[in-house]
Structure formats: C-alpha cells, structure tokens
Amino acid sequence: MKNKTNLLSTIALLLFVVSCNGPAKNIKTESPNLKNIAYDAFIYAYPMMEQVKTINDMFAFNNMTPNVVAMNSKFPMDNVGMPIVAPNLTSMTGGVFVDISAGPVTLEIPEVKDRYTVYQCVDVFTHNFYYMGSRGNKGEAGTFTFYSKGQQLPDNGSTPVLLEGDFAFVVVRIDIKDRSEVNQVLAIQDAIKVISAPTETRAYPAYDKEKAFSPKFVEYVNELLTEVPESETTLFEKFKSIGIMNEVKLSEEELKEVQTGIDSAYLAIQTETQNLNIGNGYIGATETFGTREFLNENYLFRAVGAHFGLWGNSKEEANYFMLYTDGEGEIRFTKEELPPLSDIGFWSVTVHDENVLVHKNEYDSYVLTMDQMKFEEDGSLILKISSKQEEGNWLYTPGGKMVVLIRAYQADTKKIGTYFPPKFIKK
C-alpha cells in the first residue's frame, strides 16, 4: 500500500465552499496610478496566495510531497468529533500535488462504476481546469498526462491534460456508504498512482501572511509563474509597474500608494464575501468556481471564492448551500423545491455547530443522503432537526447555534444557478 497521508484538516476545506449568485464587478483600473494597479493586482493574486497558504500547511502537517499520491485511509465517520471544518461524511478523500516544472506527470486512475468518484484538478490560479471521475470520464480507467506548452508528451497512450503554470492539485473524493465498504475504497485508493514523473521538482513558495498583505505580495506571483498567461498579456503589462514579472524600485511614497491599493482590495473582497446570501438565509456555491473560460476575467469572483473557502467545485460537479441558524425545527421541501439534479445527481444534508464542526452524539445521527430519505407520496420531503430522535428524515442538533449544510452533486446546471433551499421553520 502506498504512502498514505492524513489530509483531514485540509481536504475538509474543499467541501466547505460557498459562493454568491449575482455578478460581482470585474477589476478595471480607472486610471494608471499605483493605487489602482495594486488594487487590481491584489485581487488577481489573492486566490493564488490562499492556495500557497493551504499547500504549505499540507507540506508541513501532512508530509505531502510533489508527484506522490496521498490518501486519507480513515472512514469518514471517524472524523466526527475532530476539529475539522465541515467534514464530508460520505467520501474518503486524498490528493496529489502535481509539479510539471521539469517535465510531464502521468496519473493513473482505476475504473470505478459502482460509486461516485471525482478527481478535481485545480491549477495555480485556482481554476478547476479538468475533471476525471463519475462525471468527468464516466468512471472509466485511464492515464492522464499533465503538461505545459513546449513540453514533449510521453508516448504512453495517455490523455493529455494541458496545464497553465507548473503546479496543480488533484483533489480526490470517493463515495462510501458504510464501514463494510472500507476495503473496497482502500483498494481504489491504492490503484491511484503517479506512473511517470520527473525526479526534479521546483521550489514552492513559503507562505508568510505579513508578506502576502504587503507590497511584497507581488513576489508570490513571480515565484509561482514562469510566463505570462496568453490571455492576460495586457493585464500583466499593467502589473509590471508594481513589480509583477518585472524588476522595479519603488520609493517610500510609491510603496505607501501600493499598500493603500492592497488594503482597499482586501476590503472589497471581504465586503463582497458578506453579500453571499442567495435567499432564505442560505449562502451557496454556484457561479464562483470553474475554468478560466467560465470565470471570464471575473477576478473578484475568484477572490471571493478563495476567501470563503478554497477549492470549490464547478457547478456541474457539486454545489453547497449553508444556513447559519439556531434552535430546532424543520425544512419542508415541495417536489419543486428539492435541489435540481441531473439524471445521475444526488444530494445530502449535514448539521454542524456554529463553527461548522461535527460533534459525537448518542444517536449517531450526522448525515442524511438522498437514498436514505423518505419522500411523501407527492414527492415532497420534510427534514426534521431537533435534540430528540424523531420518525422520518431526522438529524440531531443539541440546540443553540448551528449550520445546516446541503450538498448537491451533479446538478442541473440550467437550474442550480438560481436555486436556494426552503427556509428553516423553528419550533
């Protein structure tokens, strides 16, 4: 069995992402002064730096190394009671940090047709640039070679996957119903392999918060990128004046101007993050995460997503709806108010404390999946959330402040963008 790594605290973040439903403003410099340029550049760079912070944590605490598969072998319910934000209680997780700086990297995955799997590929910009798995390649086995333009692909019959930049992270989630399936999932995890990779890798930036929020933040972009993205040459030409992909010497007054732009940009990100309510008190992820083409230069959207929760799935794959509330009560779904899904979609509900943690309870009541739910004759559903066990669709809460989290996988993309669940009705 290959080296297994505990990715609990980090992979949990992948499942705790939210976004907003309405359009945020794209960054547009009003005049060519350093404050405005720094404002735009910080919004552009912020998601990249948040990713550096997360990957540094994984290097430090999970012993992750480039181009080596690292899987979490624990049954999801064993994460209950641990200090993990919004743990996914229906999947076993893991990942691969990909470094193609010295040449292409080939990943092999097994055929899995009996359960949901997803391999979410996130690039250095935090774009979801590629997917494999149940939806991505219909659960088929395959080999996939990550490469950049100018690199020679190996003659191994693999599927080429073009990557912008030298680094990527492949997030792996494998569905599991109960403990009887642990060995089956472990076998799937063991069959995920990096079968070809260069022996050399490139140094990855070390995260420093003070640096990330100072005029030196430009160094992160310079360390991460070796070339300007083809579609953003005009943008980077503007960024040159503050030292991105360029050497400059700024005066103290100019540095103060840059810092003012940084502070304004971070305030804009925080402000936009506070506007995530999509209806009935829910905040939801539908439009913030995706490919470069999907985001279409909406850099503020990308920054907001990273601020609230890094590595959110594209809406075709998974969507998340969170409700911060308190007390006990129920959510009543008519048939039309159920999450809109594709033919192979499914959804689940979990209840967390106010810090989005899950605590052990005497009822072992932690998650309800669609296949466990009991629907009324008219297709409606009543979800009960209380401190005492009830008949039907029931989840435990001790009372007080709580977070209800609804995960909808493989949704109907034409409808999910305007969807939000029904309100929570307190007893």
Cα shape:
globular
Beta-strand content bin: 25-35%
> What would you report as the Rg, rounded to the nearest angstrom?
22 Å
Biggest sheet descriptor: 6 strands, antiparallel
* Biggest β-sheet: strands ordered side by side in the sheet: 10-11-12-18-14-15
Unreliable residue runs? 1-25
User: Looking at this structure, what is the CATH superfamily of the largest domain?
Assistant: Domain of unknown function DUF1254
What order do the helices and strands follow? HHEEEEEEEEHEHHHHEEHHEEEEEEEHE
What top-tier CATH class of the largest domain fits best? Mainly Beta
The CATH architecture of the largest domain can be named as Sandwich
What is the CATH topology assignment of the largest domain?
Answer: Immunoglobulin-like
**Total helical segments:** 10
Which percent bin holds the helix content? Answer: 10-25%
Number of domains: 2
Overview of the molecule:
Strand 10 (277-279) and strand 11 (282-284) form a beta hairpin. With 427 residues, the chain is of the alpha+beta class. Residues 1-25 have low confidence and may be disordered. It has helices at residues 8-14, 34-62, 182-191, 209-212, 218-224, 233-239, 252-273, 292-295, 299-308, 413-416, and strands at residues 69-71, 91-99, 105-109, 117-123, 128-133, 142-147, 159-162, 167-175, 193-196, 277-279, 282-284, 318-326, 329-333, 341-353, 367-369, 381-386, 393-396, 401-411, 424-426. It is built from 10 helices and 19 strands. The protein is globular, with a radius of gyration of 22 Å. 45% of the residues are buried. Helix 2 (34-62) runs parallel beside helix 9 (299-308).
